[in-house]
Amino acid sequence: MRVLKIVLLLAAALVPLAGVYVLNNATLVAEWLTDTGGFHTGETLPSVTGEEVDGGTIDTARYRGMKFVAMIAKIDCESCKSSYPVLQKWSELYPETPLVMIGVGGKEAYGEVKRDLQFSFPLLAADRTAQDRLRIKITPVFYAMDEQGTIIERMNGYRVKDFQKFMKRVGEA
User: Which of 52, 99, 131, 151 could be disulfide-bonded to 121 (CB atoms 3.0-4.6 Å)?
Assistant: First the structure.
């Protein structure tokens, strides 16, 4: 009977601690419990070609040979939308590390977003082929690539503090 009481007391103490951990590390827990798709650190992000929302074609292979960041976004994703005001700052703070957004959704809608927010970076409208090639399951996802196209950092979702840390690590790498 005494052992049972000890086990119950330990369980009563661990459950709230686990809850606090989950609340403070929701992104990590979600990634652990789900398949987030895409690619991971150490892998090579495949190049994709698609329409730039301002016209013309863009191929992410043009960034090989330099560090760059690719953001996978979806037009109706609230987390993606909340990141938009900060994205232009990237270009200002780290001009030597280009940013390219790969958007899932309508080319016209993304064209409006780009014009309204005056993005200076390219925004590629991802067709079904590009989406399949990138194995998109969640948005937003930020990939930082080295000069060989190898992912050196991946960030799922968007929270200001996490993105600021991501920017600093990638910008200084």
Answer: 99
CATH class of 37-172: alpha beta
Cα–Cα distance between 72 and 105 in angstroms, integer? 11
The DSSP bridge pattern shows strands 57-59 and 49-52 to be: antiparallel
Kindly report the pTM of this predicted structure: 0.79
Distance CA 4, CA 59 (A): 63
Q: With contact defined as beta carbons under 8 Å apart, do 134 and 72 qualify?
A: yes
Q: Which two tokens stand for residue 124?
A: 């590629």
